[in-house]
Design brief:
mitochondrion; 68% helix; Znf_RING-CH; zinc; binds zinc ion; 3 domains; disordered C terminus; Znf_RING/FYVE/PHD; 1% strand; mainly alpha; Herpes Virus-1; two-stranded antiparallel sheet
């Protein structure tokens, strides 16, 4: 028996070795006798062979439409040698053109966007110059200036306006006022909004630092910076109608606008801070009714009384403050 079975199993393994299995579709030679086979990598054993068509499909899946992507064997990592038939000169040229356009388009698109932004900035700068100096003077200045200076100088106007808007001088003024009120208590009578500031308690100290600077909002900075010349012109016309030149009127108007707006902002931030530091979380008026019905329904009177004493403790605490 042994003598007969041993050669059989040996022959079986030999047949298994010579028999080819596709690692993609698991089919063997017998399943499809005509399908062409390929051993494309360094793998041995069961993953050595694969159908040409199965591997093509697998490569297509990996490349996702981009035929220049290199594909490696998932087992041994060997990079498949993919051979294309010789294409004609026209096909070669078209292929190169296609790859070139594919690579260049993102840069062209970025350039168009940057260029558009630049010209918008130049236009904005020119309008601002005319707004601040007056139409006649602004036109005369720009006509007499070097074109290069204009092309560099005009777009920096909106940039500086936006950067200037990001300087938060109101926060510094507020911080300075708070610090000086703490050092010089008599200032509290001059600045009533700061009276309650810093009067003991760790709560007040933490919220002082927390409230003072809120995060920069990009659209708000953009709108605020770019609308400043217009607002300055309007303020100049309103407050300084007898100014000699448009430039002086606009500068004074801008200064007045920024000062008034800044003072309002300091006031708003300080009042907001005071309101925040004085806030109290109120008792739930329905709680008593709910807890009494609870105690009557289920006999958990101990929890009910403990919570009520707790609450009264809180009440006394807030009354003390
Ligand atoms: Zn296959
Ligand atoms: Zn392999």
């Amino acid at each position: 028996m042994n003598e007969s079975t041993n050669p059989d199993t040996a022959a079986q393994t030999a047949a298994d070795d010579s028999r080819r299995y596709c690692w993609v579709c698991y089919a063997s030679d017998e399943d499809d006798v005509t399908a062409p086979w390929v051993k494309p990598c360094l793998c041995r054993g069961t993953t050595k062979w694969v159908h040409q068509s199965c591997l093509q499909r697998w490569v297509d899946e990996k490349q996702k439409g981009n035929s220049t992507v290199k594909v490696n064997c998932p087992q041994c990592g060997f990079q498949y040698i993919i051979h294309f038939p010789n294409m004609g000169q026209l096909m070669l040229f078209l292929d190169r053109m296609d790859a070139f356009i594919y690579r260049v388009c993102p840069f062209v698109a970025a350039g168009v966007v940057v260029g558009s932004c630049y010209w918008v900035a130049v236009t904005y700068g020119a309008i601002t110059v005319m707004q601040v100096l007056g139409y006649q003077e602004g036109m005369a200045l720009m006509e007499s200036a070097d074109p290069l200076v204009l092309l560099v100088g005009l777009p920096t106007i909106p940039v500086f306006l936006i950067l200037g808007k990001m300087v938060r001088w109101e926060d510094k003024v507020l911080r300075l006022l708070r610090a000086s009120v703490r050092k010089l208590p008599f200032l509290r009578y001059v600045l009533p909004g700061f009276r309650s500031n810093g009067d003991g308690g760790p709560q007040g100290a933490t919220s002082t630092t927390a409230v003072i600077s809120d995060p920069i909002n990009a659209t708000r900075v953009l709108c605020g910076g770019l609308s400043l010349p217009t607002l300055a012109t309007l303020a100049g016309r309103a407050f300084f109608p007898t100014c000699s030149t448009t430039l002086n009127q606009t500068l004074l108007g801008g200064l007045a606008f920024l000062t008034i707006k800044g003072l309002f902002k300091v006031y708003y931030k300080q009042q907001y801070h005071v309101i925040q530091s004085k806030r109290i979380i109120k008792d739930n008026p329905l709680h008593d009714a709910a807890s009494s019905s609870n105690t009557s329904a289920t006999s958990t009177s101990s929890t009910g009384t403990s919570s009520s004493t707790d609450r009264s403790g809180h009440n006394e605490g807030t009354r003390d403050q």
